[in-house]
Every structure is written in structure tokens, then in C-alpha cells.
Design brief:
single chain; alpha/beta; 6 helices; 38% helix
Length: 191
């Protein structure tokens, strides 16, 4: 599990306390977005994602603290006339395969945002699951390269290593051109 904010972190701690078996919570360093924490935590259904925003052409899957970037990308795409769904994955394993299948069959392209290495990460899990389902929707993955990453301020490092909305839009550009132009289903590829 990886929380989007402090409130969801408390829910995940509560969920972990109720779960019989191993469980892991991945959370970032530093402070959260200052979300209000409710009085009574909720038990989250394990392996179930949360739809934050509905949309048709692009499905943006955010894992953990990357939700603000996913929402920003959705806002910028909307300004360009492209409706984008935003999904808070919550779980990398088990992945919400039913929701992934639903969005993959209806979107022209999927974007994954993760705050860790792309190889073997959340986006790679999405690609594996789509392959197992026989769904060829293209996937654009935004995350860290599989190399040594310098130490520094998170925002500066994200910009330097392409973990940003600008990087997502750059990788999405060929798909967006086709979405805006033809409105047809795209050929499967993985970025």
C-alpha cells in the first residue's frame, strides 16, 4: 500500500492492524500535503483502487503521493479538450485488476505515476497485468530511472529525472495527437 496523504496513511495503518498476514505500507520522506485526518479511520478493502476523477480518453493511475501530479496532468489535458480519469491505485499488490481492465478497455492510453524505479515497479505491474488480460492499451510510465539518483530536494530531483507532468505530457504527445485527430483506438506500445 502507498497512501496519497496523511488521512489515507492512517486508514492504511488501521487496515494493516486488522489484516491477518504480511502487509507493507510505503510512504515518502518529508511531510505530507497536510490533509485533515478524520476521527475514526476506515478499513480499506485490500486490492481496491479509488476513482478520484472520471474521464474517457486517458486513464491516469497514481500510486501513493503522486496524486497531485496526476490531478495536475488531468487538469492540463482537460484544458486541451481531453477528458482524463484519475485513479488512486492504493495497492501495487494486489493490483485492482477489475478496475484496471475496465479503464484499459475504455481509454486510449494509460499513464502511471510512481515515486520509485520504473523497472519492476507499479507501472511494470500494470503492464504485466494488461499482458495477462490480453489488453493492448498503450501505457506511458512516469517514475525514476534504474540508476543512482542524487540526493536533493524532491521537487528538483523530480524535474531533473523526468518525474513530472511535463515529462508525462512529452511522452503522451504522440498519443494525444491521435486522440485529438482521429478518435480511434491506438496501437499497443509501452513507453
Amino acid at each position: 500500500m502507498s497512501p496519497k496523504d496523511e488521512d489515507e496513511f492512517v486508514d492504511m495503518l488501521y487496515t494493516a492492524s486488522l489484516h491477518k498476514g504480511p502487509i507493507a505500507i510505503r510512504y515518502p520522506r518529508g511531510t505530507g500535503p497536510n490533509a485533515t485526518i478524520k476521527k475514526t479511520p476506515l478499513a480499506l478493502p485490500i486490492g481496491k483502487a479509488e476513482v478520484v476523477r472520471h474521464g474517457k480518453k486517458v486513464a491516469i493511475w497514481s500510486y501513493g503521493q503522486m496524486l497531485p501530479l496526476a490531478l495536475q496532468l488531468s487538469d492540463e489535458l482537460k484544458a486541451e479538450g481531453v477528458e482524463a480519469a484519475v485513479i488512486n491505485a492504493r495497492f501495487a499488490k494486489p493490483l485492482d485488476t477489475a478496475m484496471l481492465e475496465l479503464f484499459a478497455k475504455n481509454a486510449e492510453v494509460i499513464v502511471t505515476f510512481e515515486d520509485h524505479v520504473l523497472k519492476g515497479g507499479f507501472g511494470a505491474g500494470v503492464l504485466e497485468e494488461l499482458a495477462d488480460l490480453g489488453i493492448g492499451t498503450p501505457v506511458v510510465r512516469i517514475g525514476w530511472p534504474d540508476e543512482f539518483v542524487d540526493h536533493g530536494k524532491p521537487d528538483a530531483l523530480r524535474e531533473r529525472y523526468g518525474v513530472s507532468v511535463a515529462a508525462a505530457k512529452e511522452k503522451l504527445a504522440p498519443y494525444l495527437a491521435r486522440i485529438k485527430g482521429a478518435g480511434r483506438k491506438l496501437q499497443p506500445t509501452a513507453a
